[in-house]
Design brief:
alpha/beta; Immunoglobulin-like; Rossmann fold; 3 domains
Length: 486
């Protein structure tokens, strides 16, 4: 009897100690990277009304700040961070009854990796979907231990969640395989260029539509998406296609974390959307995230989806989604888009997860290094359509963002021409240049013997629209069309 009493007393005491201990958000943990030279948020839970002492040692001596838990037990404190560096720090949290210490905290640049499966795709790949260069990256992983990441578990929720079961990892041979490949190659490039730690917050889910991340208010006002759980299940057999839920369960838990910007790779699940719809909703999603992070106009860099068969290689619904993505880049401030038209091998025409993720991450990094970090020496823009003039039976296309060079003068592939019937025919294309002044100089001449009175030009504007034009930075030309839907 006495033994039972003592055991019950011990359990009660343990439970009391457990509830008394300050609880941190899972994002506030060992190996985390904090955004440099700003005020960052640290938060957690305690007994309502309880005061938590947060002590940092970023500037040579301990600095303690007090945070009081609200009526729901949540507390939050803002602390200043120093310049980025490789020195590890500790942070202590004291609620008066216990002390929790977070170790190996670095200060650097923190980026969110959002979107669907091509952003989620880890370094070790998916089943039957490898990542090019994986073994070499494992061998060299210890050279990049200043890259840390935290993977937010994919979770659905009808209401926004405040926390997620996750932990930060330092890159090494054992952990690199689970890191987003696109995010890792982005971080690797930024780390090498700026010589500072880089943290990645991986908040994504394969197969999700853009509606999966938009909030209830927007979906209710601007869409016909079902917002009742049973209606969602009835309309969408695949849970990853359901609206609202992934933003609430997978993205909401990170919104208190202080970040530098957002990387986004999504769109395949929205192929076939009506004209303009995806552009509007992507713009709305960026506005939503910027509002909820409360950090102003966060940089937003995103990936144009790659060519893919989509059940018909010559269809154009994939190309039209890429067009909507490009149009979004024109209306979203402080943003940038990268083209991946050249990053799919011919044998990957039916592979939705191309293997070459290094170049995707690097191109995102070029955008950030140029636009966010001010390194204008880095050329980050793909060429795009500027204007067209028609002389007789030939179209002369002018491009922008060439960086002083077109990568090829001959054997240019990907152009098509149509007349009034809008039936497109494969065209010959070449760089037009003569020594004397001519308004057509330095343009791409496009001609098809099957179209004697050309009116429209398309470039790589098919589901599997392969083109080979690049600029002086060897970045590929964005697919485009000069005809528009009427």
């Amino acid at each position: 009897m006495l033994r039972r009493y003592l055991m019950l007393s011990f359990c009660a005491l343990a439970a009391l100690m457990s509830t008394a201990k300050v609880r941190l958000s899972h994002l506030i943990s060992d190996h985390m990277i904090l955004q440099q030279q700003t005020d960052v948020c640290l938060w957690g839970w305690a007994q309502p009304g309880q005061t938590v002492k947060v002590t940092t040692r970023f500037f040579g001596k301990p600095v303690t700040q007090l945070a009081k838990a609200d009526t729901k037990g949540q507390w939050l404190v803002s602390v200043k961070t120093p310049k980025a560096g490789y020195k590890p720090y500790t942070i202590t949290f004291d609620d008066g009854q216990s002390i929790t210490t977070v170790s190996n905290v670095l200060v650097g640049e923190v980026w969110v990796c959002a979107g669907q499966s091509n952003m989620e795709m880890p370094m070790k790949g998916f089943v039957n979907c490898p990542i090019e260069g994986y073994n070499q990256e494992v061998v060299e992983a210890r050279r990049h231990k200043a890259i840390h990441y935290v993977k937010i578990p994919g979770r659905m929720s009808m209401t926004p969640q405040a926390d997620a079961d996750c932990q930060w990892s330092e890159i090494n041979p054992q952990t690199i395989g689970d890191c987003s490949a696109t995010g890792y190659f982005f971080a690797q490039t930024v780390n090498r260029t700026l010589d500072i730690p880089v943290g990645l917050v991986l908040a994504n889910k394969g197969g999700t539509r853009i509606e999966s991340w938009l909030d209830r208010d927007y979906l209710k006002k601007h869409t016909q998406e079902p917002l009742d759980s049973m209606a969602m299940v009835k309309r969408f057999a695949s849970d990853y296609h359901r609206p609202l839920l992934w933003g609430n369960g997978t993205f909401a838990p990170i919104l208190n974390y202080t970040v530098k910007g957002i990387l986004y790779y999504q769109g395949c699940s929205n192929v076939g959307d009506p004209a303009g719809q995806y552009t509007q909703r992507l713009q709305a999603l960026v506005e939503q995230w910027r509002r909820d992070f409360r950090q102003g106009q966060l940089p937003f860099y995103f990936v144009q989806i790659a060519p893919h068969w989509y059940d018909n290689r010559d269809g154009d619904w994939g190309a039209k989604l890429r067009e909507q993505q490009y149009n979004a880049s024109l209306v979203i401030p402080n943003s940038g888009i990268i083209c991946t038209d050249d990053l799919v091998y011919p044998y990957e025409s039916k592979q939705i997860h191309p293997a070459r993720k290094r170049q995707v991450g690097e191109r995102l990094a070029f955008q950030a290094l140029n636009k966010t970090y001010g390194m204008k020496e880095i050329w980050c823009e793909s060429p795009s359509f500027k204007s067209m003039t028609i002389y007789n039976d030939t179209c002369y296309v002018r491009l922008q963002n060439l960086y002083g060079a077109i990568s090829r003068f001959n054997d240019i592939d990907g152009f098509e021409v149509a007349g009034a019937d809008k039936v497109f025919h494969k065209a010959k294309a070449w760089h037009y240049w003569i020594s004397q002044p001519d308004p057509r100089n330095d343009a791409i001449a496009v001609f098809s013997p099957d179209v004697r009175q050309p009116l429209y030009v398309r470039y790589a504007f098919r589901n599997w629209g392969y083109g080979n034009m690049k600029n002086g930075a060897l970045l590929p030309l964005f697919p485009f069309r000069t005809d528009k839907d009427e």
